[in-house]
Amino acid sequence: MGLEEGLKVLAEHKILSAPVLRRPAGSQRIQFADDWPEDQPFPHVIGFAGVFDILGAILQELEDIVGTKELEKGGVLRVMRELEKRAPHIAAKELVHVRGTDGDFVFQEAAGKPLLQTIVRSFLVPHDVGTVPEEKVLPSLRTPDKSWKVHRLALYDSAGRLTTIVSQTDVVRFLLQHAAELGEVKDKTVEELRLGMPKNVFVVPGDTSALVAFDKMYKMGLTAAGVVEKKTGVLVGNLSVADLRSIKFDQIGKLAVPVSEYLLLQKGVRRASRAESGLNKGNRNSFTGQVLATCAPDSTLLDVIESMVLHCVHHVYVVGNAGVAVGVVSPSDILDLLSLRTLW
Q1: What is residue 81's predicted lDDT score, i.e. its pLDDT?
Q2: Which of 8-17, 153-162, 180-189 has the lowest mean pLDDT?
């Protein structure tokens, strides 16, 4: 499977990552674990691959373009043409060669462990890096003892078949459904808990090329960046690796345009469609076409969890009085917080 087909599958299922299986000889279609024939052995699972890994593969092919000053000099059209010229080669690159480390596999019988134990041992500190080259582990996933945390777990049975995938976001949804059991901590404020703050929020001005912004995110091991007005620093949008899912490789040239324009081009594909479904609260930003998931320092933990779930996002920005982002909360931050407290 090539990168373009891989992105298409992830977009269709509205996910960021999935296990990669070695396709059996003669098989011409994508096969899903839940309808795999019982009388056939399950294919070998190679690992996980996601949008972030595909972004890295794309950037590797465009390294000479990202490193030039062409975009800063206003040569957007020339860069767009060069990107589109390289598109067929990039699209055909095999997905098997770009698998990453942001996923782990757990034997199904281990799923009976307490949730808190699963959070700590499987999501936050699952394994020592061991034989995995350290440079392959994202900086944002590393921990001080050189292990790494992951965002999703795939459960498999005794026959080696994948049975389900549980993500950190699934756990956050579960927490919202059982909010009453969280106790007093759910009513404490973001500022009191130091949740997602103080944190140096990575932001880019709206006139930054989307290609340059994605490159900076990738090199920092980040999956999102706040988009700000250049003069005021006011937060107006969010650029996420998920915004790459809908890109068509014959239109890959639009990566050269400014971030604000790129997000408007995605309008109606991702956040805009969710806003119109009635899940979002607030006004759409005319600068990016987005409805941002934000909270204030005095918002409660429950407010943040609700915002994350209702907006279907992985980042809730903490915004101060001046409209400037002073922090950002991810599912990992919430699980980190809860793992330090006796809640279960």
Answers
A1: 84
A2: 153-162
- pLDDT of res. 103: 74
C-alpha closest to that of 195 among 60, 72, 57, 305? 305
Average pLDDT rounded to a whole number, residues 228-238 = 92
φ, ψ of residue 105 to 5 degrees: the values are -120, 135
CA distances from 188 to 179, 183, 249, 304 (A): 13, 10, 46, 11
Judged by DSSP in three states, 131 sits in coil
Taking the C-alpha atoms of residue 183 and residue 304, their distance in angstroms, rounded to an integer, is 15
| Structure token digits, residue 190 | 């973001």
Higher pLDDT, 200 or 241: 241
* Residue corresponding to tokens 């006796």: 342
- For residue 323 the two structure tokens come to 């409209």
What is the C-alpha to C-alpha distance for residues 308 and 303, in angstroms, rounded to an integer?
9
Q: Which amino acid is at 233?
A: G
Q: What does the angle CA 6 – CA 9 – CA 11 come to, to the nearest 5 degrees?
A: 110
Report the alpha-carbon distance of residue 141 to residue 181 in Å, rounded.
29
Please state the pTM of the whole predicted model.
Answer: 0.79
